[in-house]
Amino acid sequence: MCWTRREIMEVQMPIKERLVVSPVKLWRKRRRESESSSVPALFGYEAQEREVYNRLKRAAVAGESTSLILCGYSGCGKHLLLARVLERLEREKEVPDYDVVHLSGEAHADASVALREVVRQIAARTESHRLASRYVDDLKVLVDELHRRRAEESAPLLVVLSRLELFASEHRQTLLYVLLDAIQSKEGCVVVVGITSDRHVLELFEKRVRSRLHNVHVSFGHVDARAVLSFLDDRLLASEETPYAVALAESWTRVKASPEFARELEDAIAVGMPVAWHAKVATLAVAALAPRAPLLTVEGWLRAVNDNSPNRSANWIKAIAALKPARLALVLAYLRFERDDKTDYNLDLAAKELAKLRQLNASAVCFHDDVLLKAQAALISMTVLKLGKKTARADARALEPATLRYAPVRLTGAVSLEDLFTALRQGALDCPTVLRQWVLQDVVA
């Protein structure tokens, strides 16, 4: 039996959306929509989810200040679990809604940068504050916001500190002082959630911080094969009962029953591959579905496992890190488009965004149009970029400048975008700080 491309896409797209979830995007999406979006379930961490849910619900209802540390290996689902808990709380009418401020230790470890980002996110939600130009003014805005929530008996401000261990690297930890002082003060109203993979993170902080950041410690261990299979079943099985969806489910059952799949799963569990890794393998397998190969196969799954091997991504990241400045700037601009879920982008849009960045920060490098055109052609010939369908058969070097400038492109699927973001956060991509901050958090200070 044959299926059309539309039938495949109707089943394929919801599956890919469940597999690839950005918690930060989910928080932003909930603020734009009247109804909560569905956050996929996690498996193997039911006790951790119950603990975080109960703590945050109690804090929201009673207006209590508290702190939590979510600790587990990278990719285990700490951010996703928190996003799922927040969605559950938003669906309960008797629980006041949290306003979430998200900071990352990779971009906001410096106290002044972190404080400016907190004020920016507060101002974007409340529309009651103007961005100040001085550090003390930013500090006053934050303190006033915490006092206002206490006076109005609102839900506490929820501050999420990703890569908590990196906040300890700065000598001046003023932001943490303010937040943790507010936890113990009767005038403040704040919940601080630290997310880290370092189980000894508290030992990195000063005693003043360490003594106030230990309210609740939630640990995430490695999941077993049963939890991984439950996770994959939940993500890969379509909800509708169309003929193609049924056939796809049957093909997944055959893949799971194969000894090759069992061996790969056993090896992945033995070496401690995170849930996020299994999700990326499934994403690659689903993305390869097409009219000529519409169903999951053992060979296709093993190919996805091989394509998602750490060495393969590492080689691509090394190649991208070695790109010339103009080429690297374009890759980062396109990575930023992917972060914002933009699927229709081209060189013209990237050039305009880079020009805006130059206006915001004088340290950003300005590239001439001819340099960007040559860089674009080189990236396509190197297969770092792929052209849209209409121009895919054309030779990039032979394209007219106008065509090359406006032709739609996408970053190659040979390297995981998540791995690129991780490399950027960890400093594996050697690029100017202003570009790095621009891609990760829109910070151009």
UniProtKB/TrEMBL annotation:
UniProt cross-references to PANTHER family, sorted A to Z: ORIGIN RECOGNITION COMPLEX SUBUNIT 4
Domain Nephrocystin 3-like N-terminal per the UniProt entry, residue ranges: 63-217
Keywords: Repeat
Biological classification of the source: Eukaryota, Sar, Stramenopiles, Ochrophyta, Pelagophyceae
Single GO cellular component term: nuclear origin of replication recognition complex
GO molecular function: DNA replication origin binding
GO biological process: DNA replication initiation
Protein name, entry field: Nephrocystin 3-like N-terminal domain-containing protein
Pfam family, one: NPHP3_N
